[in-house]
Design a protein that fits this description.
The complex is a heterodimer of chains A (542) and B (580).
Chain A (H helix, E strand, L loop, with lengths): L1 H24 L11 H16 L11 E2 L6 E2 L1 H13 L3 H27 L2 H12 L2 H7 L4 H19 L4 H16 L3 H15 L1 H6 L1 H14 L1 H8 L2 H9 L6 H11 L7 H6 L2 H15 L3 H6 L17 H16 L5 H10 L2 H4 L14 H15 L5 H33 L8 H11 L5 E4 L6 H9 L3 H4 L18 E2 L2 E3 L4 H6 L3 E5 L9 E7 L5 E7 L1
Parallel strand pairs in A: 3-5, 3-6
Antiparallel strand pairs in A: 1-2, 4-5, 6-8, 7-8
Helix pairs in contact in A: 1-4, 1-5, 2-3, 2-4, 2-24, 3-4, 4-5, 4-6, 4-7, 4-21, 5-21, 7-8, 8-11, 9-19, 14-16, 18-21, 19-21, 23-24
Chain B lengths: L9 H19 L11 H16 L11 E2 L6 E2 L1 H13 L3 H27 L2 H13 L1 H7 L4 H19 L6 H12 L5 H15 L8 H22 L5 H6 L8 H11 L6 H7 L1 H14 L4 H7 L18 H12 L5 H12 L2 H4 L14 H19 L4 H33 L6 H7 L28 H5 L3 E4 L6 H8 L4 H7 L2 E2 L7 E2 L1 E2 L2 E3 L4 H4 L5 E5 L15 E8 L5 E8 L1
Parallel strand pairs in B: 3-7, 3-8
Antiparallel strand pairs in B: 1-2, 4-5, 6-7, 8-10, 9-10
Helix pairs in contact in B: 1-4, 1-5, 2-3, 2-4, 2-23, 3-4, 4-5, 4-6, 4-7, 5-19, 7-8, 8-10, 9-17, 13-14, 16-19, 17-19
C-alpha cells in the first residue's frame, strides 16, 4: 500500500517537472518573439570572452559588464558562456540557463513547501502552481538574470532550513545567497535583510553552533570581497541613481503646495506636517504596497510590456482564492517556519520599491516562490474539507477555472503577445540583420534607426561580428535620463534617428528605418514586418 | 431606548463617555463649513424634508412617499423623514441636513461598544473598538456629510445588536426585523447587503435559534419590508438607479473585442472566441478586481477612493498604524470559539458586495458596512497588542502603550490636517462649493454654537441676487447646469415655498441615468449658449467662465458682470452677468 502511494506522488512530481520543462523550453528561440537588447548584450559579451577573454569594451574577465553603462552583474554571462560555446551565438544559448534554473526552481519549490508544511501534497500543489505560474513562466523564458538569482535565493532558503538541523548546510546556504548577489542587483538588498530576519528568528538554534558559524561567515566574507569592491567603486551605484524613487520630484513640489494651503508659509505646524519625511515616507510605502495591489497580482500585471502578457496578472484569478485561504490557515498553523515564509514575502519587494517604476515584476521576482507556496497550501486545505460533496464540487470548480485560465494564458502568450506588443522583445532584428548582410556590401555606409532599444548590440549579435575587431571601436555615449548610454557607430554602421535632411545630403548610404522616418520619394529596397503585419524596418535609399 | 445600559464598572463608563465625547466633537466640529458645500443629494434631502415639514408631500407633490423621486433616482426615504425634525429645529441649512448622519455616527460608537461586549464579554476589547471607531478616518468622513449610507450602517448595526441580544431575550427579534427593514428603505446598497447578512446570521447562529413566536414576527416584519421594496421595483418601476449603476450594464468596447479577434483570427461570434475571450471572463475579472480591491493594502493605506467626496488628499482609508493593528486583530480573533468571531469575518467577507456589483471600481460609500468589521479588527489588534505587552514589567507596558497611543494620535492629527485644512480646498469643487457662495443668503438663521454663524466673511452686506424681489425684475434668468442639478440648490438656499414648487415640478429624464428640473418660475436651468442667448434682454445669466467668456462680454456696454465667484482652490466657479 505505502509503496503504491509513494510511487504515485513521485510520478506526479515527475509529470509536473516534465510539464515545467516543456513550458519553459518549447520553441525557446522563437517565443518570446524577438530578442531584446539586454539578452543580446549577454550573448555577445559571452561570445567576446570566449573568443578573446575580454568583454565588448576590451576589459579582461570583468565582474560587472559595462554594456550600456549599466554595469550588469556578470555571473549570468559566465553561465551563458558554455552554452554559446556548444550551441553557437544564438537566442537559445542565452535563454537556456534561465530556463533550466526555472525548471530547477519548480523542484525546489516542491522540496521547500514539503519541508515547511510537512506534507507531500502541499509540495506537489506548490510545484504545480509554480510550473504554470504566469509570473514565473514570463521570466523563465528569456535571458533573465533575475530568474537565475531567484533559483539561488530559493536554494539558499531551503538550505538554511536544512542548516537549522545540520549546521554545514548553513554554509552552503550562504554560498547560494552569495551567488544570487553576483547574478543580479535586487538580492544585494534583499538577501542581507532576509539573513537578518533568519538570524533573529532562529537565534537560539544558531547560537548553539556559533563556532562553526563564525568560520562559515569568514569564508563567505572572503568570497564576497569582489562584490564589495565593485559596490564601493561607484559603478554599481550608477544604475540605482537613475531609478531611485528620490529622483521623483513629485512629492517635493507637493510639500510646497500643502504648506501653502495652511495660509501662512512660515507656520510651524505646516512645516512639521509637510516636509521631506512626511512626503517621501508614504511615497515609499506606496511603491512597496504596489507589489501587493490587486491590479498587479491578479488583473493586469505590471506596466512594462517586456515583463507581462496581455490581459493577465502575475497570478491567476483563482489563485487569489487560494491565497486568502492559505493566509488564514497560516495564522493558526503550528508549523515552525511559516514566519520565515511570510517574512520572505514581505522582504522580496523591498529592492523593487526603491525605484519609482513600481510595481516591477522583474525586480521583485523572488516573491513568486513564497507566494506560490502559500497558494499551494491554501489549495491543499480545500482537500481537507469534511463534507465530501461540497469538497468535490469546490475542487472541481477550482481546477476547471485554473485549467481555463492556464489555457487562456498560453493563448495570450503565444498568439496575442507577439502581435500586440511586438516592441516588447524588439522583434525583427534577426530578419533585419540577415537581410542587411545581403545588401551591405553594395553601400559605403549603413544608417540604422535607434527607434528600437540599443540597435548596435543586436547587429553585433546577429552579425556575429568579430569581437577582436569590435573592441577597439567601442565608445559609449554619455548617459541619458535613465542612466543608459549607447553606441552610435562602429565599422560602416551608424545608429541614430534618421532625419529628413540627412537623407538628402548623403549618398551611397543604405537607410534602415521605421515607416515614419522614411520619406515619400525614397526607393524601398526591402522590408521587415511585425507579426501583426505592421512594418518594423524599411530598407531604403534616396 | 429598548436596551438597558449594562455597563457595570465605573471606570469603563468614564472611558466610554470620554470616547463618545471625542467622537462627537470630531463629527460636529465645523459641521456646516466642512465639507464646504452640499452635494446634490444633500440638498435634495434637505429640501424634501422641508417640503414634508410644510406640506406633508415631497418636492413633486407626492404625499408621504416611501421613495423620493428627486432626480429620478428614487431615493429611499428613511433619512429624509429622519431629517424633518432637524429642519424644523434648525431651519433649512447644512447643519440640519447633516444632523441625522452625525447622530448616527456618534451613537454608532456606543452601539459598537455594546455589540462587541455582547459578542465577547470583554469590556476592554469593546472599549478599544469604540476608541478606534471614534477616531476612524473612514467613520468621520462619512458621518459628517449627509450620507444615507452612514445611517444605514447604523441601522444595520442596530439590527445585528438586537438579533444577538434576541438569542437570549427573544422579544428583541422584533425590533431587529424592524431595523433591518428600515435599512432597506435607507440606502439602496442595503437591498443587497441585508438579505446576505440575514442569511449569514441564520447560518452562524443556527444552533442557538429556535423558531419561537418572536423570531417569526421579526422575520415577518422584515419580509413585509422586502415585499414593499419588491413592489416598487417591479410594479412602480422605481429602479432606474440600480439599472444605471450596476456592473453588468457595462461591457468591453467593440474596439477592444475586435482587436482580440483580429489577433486570434477568430470571428467574434465563434463559440471558441466566446469561451476563451467571451464577456463572461471579462465580467469575472472585473468582479474579482472589485472584490479584492477592498483588501488591497495600497488602496486602504495610500490611495483611498477616487471620488473627491469620498476621500481626503494624500491619505488612504485607514490609518498607517492599522497596517499593524488589523493583522494582529485577525490573529487574535481567528480561531476564537465565540461565534461572534465568525460573524466578524463573515461581515468582512460580504460587506463590500453592494460596491462589488456596481459600476465603479471603488466606492467606499457603497461598501461602508466594511466599517464595522474593519474597526472591530483594529480594536481587537490594539487590545491584543496591549494584552501581550502586559506580560512584561509595568515600565515596558506603560512606555509601549504611550508610544502606541502617540502613534494613533499622530495619525489622527495628520488626518485632521488633511481633512480640515486641505480637503476643503482641494475638493471644494467636488463638494459644489460654488453654489453655496453664489446662492446662500441665509445668514440670520440660528446655527448651532459649534458652527460659525454666517459662514462667509463677505456675507454681511453682500449683494443678494436671489431674493425674490430681485429675481422677479428680470424677464429671463439662465443658470448653467454644468455643475449638475442647479435647481435643487436654488430651492434649498432660497428656502423656496414647497407648494409653489410642487405645482411646477417637472423632471426631465432622457435616459435611465439621473434627470433634472429645467424650469422654476422665470428661471431656466440649462447650459448657456452665448452666441444665441446674448440676445436676451433684461436677463440675468449665471454660468461658467467658458460659457460667458471675457471677450464676448466685457467690450459690450449692454452686459454687466455683477460677480465672479471662485472655488476655495482659486478656480473659477460662477460668473453672474446682467443684460439690459
Amino acid at each position: 500500500m505505502k509503496f503504491k502511494i509513494f510511487n504515485l506522488k513521485f510520478l506526479f512530481l515527475f509529470l509536473v517537472l516534465v510539464l515545467a520543462a516543456v513550458l519553459r523550453l518549447w520553441n525557446l528561440g522563437e517565443y518570446p518573439a524577438g530578442f531584446n537588447a539586454d539578452e543580446a548584450a549577454i550573448g555577445y559579451n559571452a561570445y567576446s570572452i570566449l573568443q578573446t577573454g575580454k568583454d565588448e569594451y576590451g576589459t579582461f574577465y570583468p565582474l560587472a559588464f559595462k554594456s550600456f553603462g549599466d554595469y550588469k552583474p556578470g555571473l549570468y554571462f559566465y553561465f551563458v558562456m558554455p552554452f554559446v560555446a556548444t550551441l553557437g551565438l544564438n537566442e537559445i544559448a542565452v535563454r537556456l540557463p534561465s530556463a533550466l534554473f526555472g525548471i530547477l526552481t519548480v523542484l525546489l519549490a516542491y522540496l521547500l513547501a514539503k519541508k515547511i508544511f510537512e506534507d507531500d501534497r502541499v509540495g506537489l500543489l506548490s510545484a504545480l502552481l509554480l510550473t504554470i505560474s504566469p509570473w514565473h513562466l514570463q521570466f523563465s523564458r528569456g535571458g533573465w538574470e533575475s530568474n537565475a538569482a531567484t533559483f539561488f535565493i530559493t536554494l539558499g532558503v531551503f538550505l538554511w532550513l536544512k542548516g537549522l538541523a545540520k549546521p554545514i548546510f548553513i554554509f552552503w546556504s550562504l554560498c547560494s545567497f552569495l551567488i544570487s548577489m553576483y547574478l543580479y542587483q535586487s538580492p544585494r538588498l534583499i538577501v542581507p535583510l532576509f539573513l537578518l530576519s533568519g538570524v533573529i528568528l532562529h537565534k537560539d538554534l544558531l547560537f548553539r553552533e556559533i563556532k562553526k558559524l563564525v568560520i562559515f561567515i569568514m569564508i563567505v566574507c572572503i568570497l564576497s570581497i569582489p562584490l564589495i569592491l565593485q559596490f564601493t567603486s561607484g559603478e554599481g551605484g550608477a544604475r540605482f541613481r537613475g531609478l531611485s524613487f528620490f529622483s521623483d520630484k513629485g512629492p517635493l513640489s507637493r510639500i510646497d503646495e500643502l504648506r501653502g494651503e495652511h495660509g501662512n508659509l512660515n507656520d510651524k505646524a505646516a512645516k512639521i506636517l509637510h516636509n521631506k519625511i512626511t512626503a517621501y515616507a508614504p511615497n515609499f510605502l506606496g511603491h512597496y504596497l504596489d507589489h501587493f495591489s490587486t491590479q498587479f497580482l491578479f488583473i493586469n500585471g505590471e506596466e512594462v510590456i517586456r515583463n507581462k502578457v496581455p490581459e493577465t496578472g502575475e497570478f491567476y484569478l483563482i489563485e487569489a482564492f487560494f491565497l486568502i485561504i492559505g493566509i488564514f490557515y497560516l495564522i493558526r498553523s503550528k508549523f515552525k517556519h511559516t514566519r520565515l515564509l511570510i517574512l520572505w514575502i514581505l522582504i522580496s519587494p523591498i529592492a523593487s520599491s526603491m525605484t519609482f517604476q513600481t510595481p516591477n515584476a522583474l525586480r521583485s521576482l523572488s516573491m513568486v516562490v513564497p507566494m506560490t507556496i502559500v497558494m499551494g497550501y491554501g489549495l491543499s486545505k480545500i482537500f481537507n474539507i469534511l463534507s465530501k460533496n461540497f469538497r468535490d464540487l469546490l475542487l472541481t470548480g477550482c481546477f476547471l477555472l485554473l485549467i481555463f485560465e492556464f489555457i487562456h494564458y498560453l493563448e495570450s502568450y503565444y498568439v496575442h503577445y507577439p502581435k500586440r506588443y511586438p516592441l516588447a522583445w524588439e522583434y525583427g532584428f534577426e530578419e533585419m540583420v540577415s537581410k542587411l548582410e545581403k545588401y551591405q556590401d553594395q553601400y559605403e555606409k549603413v544608417v540604422i534607426t535607434d527607434r528600437y532599444d540599443q540597435p548596435y548590440i543586436l547587429v553585433l549579435f546577429y552579425g556575429k561580428y568579430n569581437p577582436a575587431e569590435y573592441q577597439p571601436q567601442a565608445v559609449l555615449t554619455s548617459r541619458d535620463q535613465f542612466n543608459f548610454g549607447t553606441i552610435r557607430s562602429f565599422d560602416k554602421y551608424e545608429f541614430h534617428k534618421i532625419e529628413p535632411n540627412e537623407i538628402k545630403n548623403t549618398k551611397d548610404t543604405l537607410f534602415i528605418g521605421t515607416d515614419k522616418e522614411m520619406p515619400k520619394n525614397a526607393e524601398i529596397i526591402d522590408q521587415v514586418d511585425f507579426p501583426n503585419g505592421k512594418p518594423a524596418f524599411i530598407f531604403f535609399k534616396t | 431606548m429598548i436596551k438597558k445600559f449594562q455597563i457595570s464598572n465605573f471606570k469603563f463608563q468614564i472611558f466610554l463617555v470620554v470616547i463618545i465625547i471625542l467622537a462627537a466633537s470630531l463629527r460636529l466640529w465645523n459641521i456646516a463649513l466642512n465639507p464646504p458645500g452640499l452635494t446634490w443629494d444633500e440638498a435634495a434631502i434637505g429640501y424634501n424634508a422641508y417640503s414634508l415639514l410644510k406640506t406633508g408631500r415631497d418636492e413633486y407633490g407626492q404625499i408621504l412617499p416611501l421613495n423620493f423621486k428627486s432626480f429620478g433616482d428614487y431615493k429611499p426615504g428613511v433619512y429624509i423623514y429622519a431629517d424633518v425634525p432637524f429642519v424644523a429645529l434648525f431651519g433649512l441649512n447644512e447643519l440640519a441636513v447633516r444632523m441625522p448622519s452625525v447622530i448616527a455616527g456618534v451613537f454608532l460608537v456606543l452601539l459598537i461598544y455594546l455589540l462587541v461586549n455582547g459578542l465577547f464579554n470583554n469590556k476592554s476589547l469593546a472599549l478599544s473598538v469604540a476608541l478606534m471607531l471614534a477616531v476612524s478616518p473612514l467613520a468621520i468622513q462619512f458621518s459628517r456629510p449627509a450620507f444615507e449610507s452612514n445611517l444605514a450602517v447604523f441601522l444595520n448595526c442596530l439590527g445585528i445588536f438586537c438579533f444577538i441580544r434576541g438569542l437570549k431575550k427573544s422579544n428583541l427579534f422584533i425590533p431587529a426585523g424592524l431595523f433591518f427593514g428600515l435599512s432597506l428603505f435607507t440606502y439602496q446598497a442595503s437591498r443587497i447587503f441585508i438579505p446576505i447578512l440575514i442569511l449569514g446570521l441564520f447560518l452562524i447562529y443556527k444552533k442557538d435559534l429556535s423558531f419561537k413566536k418572536d423570531l417569526r414576527i421579526g422575520l415577518g416584519i422584515f419580509i413585509l419590508f422586502v415585499l414593499l421594496v419588491g413592489t416598487q421595483i417591479l410594479v412602480l418601476k422605481q429602479s432606474s438607479r440600480l439599472e444605471a449603476m450596476n456592473y453588468f450594464a457595462y461591457r468591453r468596447s467593440d474596439e477592444q473585442i475586435n482587436q482580440i479577434a483580429k489577433e486570434d483570427g477568430y470571428q467574434v461570434s465563434d463559440y471558441k472566441f466566446q469561451i476563451l475571450h467571451g464577456e463572461w471572463f471579462a465580467y469575472l475579472k472585473g468582479l474579482t478586481e472589485r472584490y479584492l480591491i477592498y483588501f488591497s493594502p495600497k488602496m486602504l493605506f495610500i490611495d483611498g477612493d477616487y471620488s473627491p467626496r469620498h476621500r481626503v488628499p494624500d491619505l488612504g482609508v485607514l490609518y498607517y498604524i492599522s497596517a499593524l493593528l488589523i493583522p494582529l486583530g485577525i490573529i487574535y480573533l481567528w480561531g476564537r470559539k465565540e461565534r461572534g468571531a465568525k460573524l466578524i469575518f463573515f461581515l468582512l467577507a460580504i460587506s463590500s458586495m453592494p460596491a462589488v456589483l456596481s459600476r465603479d471600481l471603488i466606492s467606499m460609500v457603497r461598501a461602508l458596512n466594511l466599517l464595522l468589521p474593519l474597526t472591530i479588527l483594529e480594536g481587537a489588534g490594539l487590545y491584543y497588542l496591549l494584552l501581550n505587552i502586559k506580560k512584561f514589567n509595568r515600565f515596558i507596558f506603560i512606555s509601549v502603550s504611550l508610544i502606541i497611543f502617540f502613534l494613533i494620535s499622530a495619525n489622527l492629527v495628520v488626518f485632521l490636517d488633511r481633512y480640515f485644512i486641505h480637503a476643503s480646498i482641494k475638493y471644494s469643487q467636488g463638494w459644489l462649493y460654488g453654489y453655496k457662495d453664489l446662492l446662500a443668503l441665509q445668514c440670520d438663521q440660528l446655527y448651532f454654537a459649534l458652527a460659525k454663524p454666517c459662514l462667509l466673511p463677505e456675507a454681511k452686506g453682500k449683494e443678494i441676487f436671489f431674493s425674490k424681489e430681485n429675481l422677479s425684475k428680470y424677464d429671463n434668468i439662465l443658470m448653467t447646469d454644468d455643475y449638475g442639478q442647479p435647481y435643487i440648490y436654488y430651492l434649498f438656499y432660497s428656502v423656496y415655498t414647497p407648494d409653489k414648487f410642487q405645482k411646477q415640478a417637472i423632471l426631465e429624464q432622457p435616459s435611465i441615468d439621473v434627470g433634472t428640473v429645467r424650469r422654476i418660475d422665470n428661471i431656466a436651468f440649462r447650459h448657456v449658449y452665448w452666441p444665441k442667448d446674448r440676445g436676451l434682454k433684461n436677463s440675468l445669466f449665471i454660468a461658467t467662465k467658458e460659457e460667458l467668456p471675457d471677450q464676448d462680454i466685457i467690450p459690450y456696454p449692454q452686459y454687466k458682470i455683477l460677480k465672479d465667484i471662485n472655488f476655495l482652490d482659486g478656480q473659477h466657479a460662477f460668473r453672474v452677468v446682467e443684460s439690459e
